Amino acid sequence: MIHIVKRGETLAGISLDYRTPMETIIATNRLVNPNLLFVGQKIEIPGIPEPSSIPFQIFVSLGSRRLTLMKNGQVVKVYPIAIGQMLKSTPVGEFVIVNRAPNPGGPFGAMWLSLSKIHYGIHGTNNPSSIGKAVSKGCIRMFNQDVLELSSQVPNGTKVYIRPN
Question: Entry's Gene3D superfamilies (predicted)?
Answer without folding.
Answer: L,D-transpeptidase catalytic domain-like, LysM domain
